[in-house]
Amino acid sequence: MEKIPQLFVESNIEECVYEGKTKVDCIIIQDNIEVRLKKGESIPEFIDLEKAKFMKKEVYDRFHFYVDKYEHKMICDAIIVFPDRRTELRLYKEDELMLLPVEGYVSSIIAGIGNRVRKSDAFAAITSKKGEVHYLKPPKNGVVVYIDEFTNRPHYIYYLLPEEG
Q1: Which residues, 6 or more positions from 4, have their beta carbon under 8 angstroms from its beta carbon?
Q2: Is 11 exposed, middle or buried (0-12, 13-18, 19+ CB in 10 A)?
Q3: Comparing C-alpha atoms, which of 26, 104, 7 is closest to residue 64?
Q4: 87 and 149, same domain (yes or no)
Q5: N or C, which end of the chain has less CB nearby within 10 Å?
Q6: 158, 136: one domain
């Protein structure tokens, strides 16, 4: 069974805390301290709620709601915790993502979430009705942060965070 990444998005104290306990799973960040708490856990005393930043857990499949659909920029800070639960990727408000559509008679995913792809690597393949296979390569090196799958047809949109340079 393939595990799904976890998504944490920037939130506020009202959505995350009530009477000193967490309302939802969240990550609280204050200076260089980061505390991960499950729903119902008490906020540690060393956390100053006025200075802290709150990241609430969100359904990973809702990632696309946190990307501006016209400019392809993040509309808030986010943390993606990959299925191994040790690797994470931080996205910041205004980070610009590459959206790469994969459309064809048959679309096949090659690179998965969390994979780094280089300009020379194929991240997906499409097969035409005539049986021709075309490999899609990104215009820049990047990391796959999300794959949006359309349920009404076998098409995908890859969301890649481009690397600098």
Answers
A1: 60, 61, 83
A2: buried
A3: 7
A4: no
A5: N
A6: yes
pLDDT in tens, 14-44: 999 999 899 999 999 999 999 999 999 999 9
Give 62-98 as a DSSP string. Answer: GGGGGB-TTT-BBSS-EEEE-TTSS-EEEE-TT-B-E
Domain that holds residue 14: 6-91
Lateral strand order in the sheet of 106-109:
106-109, 124-127, 133-136
Looking up residue 13, the CATH number of its domain turns out to be 2.40.128
In the three-class reduction of DSSP (H, G, I as helix; E, B as strand; rest coil), residue 113 is classed as coil
